Fold each of these.
Amino acid sequence: MQILNRMQITQFEVMRGVAALQVLAVHYEDYFVCRKHYFPNLNLFGPYYPGAVGMVLFFVLSGFVISYSYFDRLCAGDNRTIGKYIGLRYARLWPLHVTTLVCVFLFSIPHLSGDLWSLAANALLLHAVFPHYGVLFNYNGPSWAIGVEMVCYLLFILPCLAGRRLHENCIALLAVIGIYIGYKGFTTWSLPLSACSFYVGCGFQVFKYSSAFVLGMSLFLSLRILDRAIGRVLRVRRMFKDAATICMLLFVFCGYLKHWWSDLLPMHDSVWLILSAVWISFAYLSRGNESPYVRWNPLFYAGIASYSIYLWHTMVLLFIDRALGTGQAYPLSVTATFLISALTYKFIEGPSRRWAARCLARYEVRKVHAGDAYVL
């Protein structure tokens, strides 16, 4: 199986930035406006929850990127490759996750009082396996998504093992079926928490976003044939670049401003799932023709530090509000979140990612001679 060239797709960083800022914005407004009533006249989102839109984009993108980066390597390698893949995923997520977990524990600001069992599950990134409120959301609440992400990473191994024995066209056909399964699973599990007990509701969230991950993974495997058919036709790729830009504008403006026009055009979560998949597809098919000005986009830099922003934002707002107890905590929390995220990205997340990249380059699967076995 041919190993594809892995060029960086800057639009993916923009997507991460959009998702992280949507989650941050709605959490901060919900806390400071709806709960603390510091700014009673500030109501940008109303009953709408754009943070959920950001999570949809995040999981579809995650499934796509993990397949883009690892599927061919795991299919061409052996069981040792799978072990290295798991180690690299933990190296990517665990250092910053455990840093925030220790800070929450030391400052005693968990959402709920947790026991040693939930603390151990959180520390090992296995808290999504036990989707009870006391395990999934205790300590640093946003880390529930990282737990679900880790479960998805482990499940990703199964299609890679199947890919070792299947022809590429067969994989593409199964991927199309996987898109339908992911969409159907997402819409089936998209029930409001008020419709069921919270224990079951947390389980629904795990299955819902795992389905979005499956859709993203299947999307990449099905697009590869179309990508080869397009080849190096620059005109077509530039057309996809323009379409990706339009999708970005739709996602940003419609996502943040939906409260103002939702009465005219109500939209279900499945619409955002489809729009996420379309945006990711256009960005992938237009890679290599991206504008250099994308790197000047503030969303690009927010995307680079999106993991840090996501894990720190609720802990920072709780700590600063507890210290000040006034409306000044709102702007200070936003500023502190970005500063702390920048520092932890530089000194914790960045070094761990570079270490993981060096390991991946060292053990990257390559073909030595035509007809030879793949070696590490």
Amino acid sequence: MKKINKRYLFSTALVSLFWLSGVSNMSLLVYKIDVSKSKITILGTSNVHNWETYAENITGTFEIDRSGKKVKVIKAAKVTIPVTSIGSGKRLMDSKTYDALKADKYPFITFVLKNVISIDNVSDAQKITAAGTLSIAGVTKNVTLNAMAVELSDGRIRLEGTKEIVLSDFGIEPPTAMFGALKTGGKVSVQFTIYVTK
């Protein structure tokens, strides 16, 4: 009887383990960036006036484990921005931007998630702090990003945040214009609004 009980308990434990594993995997969903809604705004300064430009055509995927309507874990994420999708509506400024970012040689800016540091519930939203690598103009750096995540009524998740970037960290020379009379600042503020959907 003791042997039978041990075998029974062992078999039950194995079945439970496989069942729990299956439930866990079922909650892991792959979300894609909604290209039509997602947008990044880049804000900068110069010795003449402040300026802003926008990035669109943002693509990427997120692997998210959820608990109800809340994000439990983000297991993987990658975001890609074509450099030539950055635009201000001013041809000269855009050309200077592409040159500074070495678009011919490095046509994409990418962020790859390494790990999520924390997820904190804040009212109906969640504050997410994540570590990853950011690659710009052929240089890759470790960065930390903060974002607020909100689930929308249609099931999409909106991620919003701001990240300050020091151009020299990525070997980027601040663009100039008007024969050097206009000089841009060495830092930019990147504001992102990313929508992801199943």
Amino acid sequence: MMQISGAQWVALVLLGGSLACGAWAVDEKPPAALREADRAALMREAAPLARRAIENALERRPQPTDSQLPAALRQRRAGAFVTVMVEGATRACMGTVSPTAPNLGQEIIAAAVMAAGGDPWHRPLQAADLKRARIEVTVCGAMISIPDWRCYSPARDGLLVRMGHRTGVVLPGEARTARWAYREACRKASVRPGQEPELFRFEALRLVEPQH
């Protein structure tokens, strides 16, 4: 397990394991600052790409190259999570908070491939799961240190808890209350009673696949 230190930590990947947090690239805008046209393009392209990447992973087909990616996903960098929902329950969820790939499209593909078979909290996906699944892509923004879990809105923001080199994340919309999100993130980060972890909230843009 790698140690994480400094203002811009870089690590991967799990909702219940070691995660990354860092600043957006200087030429990129956080989710809240995106123009309506940019948001519309991401809404149109992100979830279908994640679904296609999962299908490719399950069927052992090549993934799209940069030249095959939509411009909206090729021209920006950001961390991203891919969540697979089946009948209202999380079937798989993997990703990174800060970007590790050259562009958002490749970030989504990497997260989708991990969700297909690398989520330690769930068994590997099957083709039958995908037929009943709804795909969500969460595009992550900058991390903001907060003094208390009450400073976080579970409907709007993601929450990251850090205790040493262990981290836990709850994505926007996963929790109904900030208290539950804090407890869940602490559980994932293995925070013991009496310990005081560092808390961060992060902006996020949630892109949900339309109902089939």
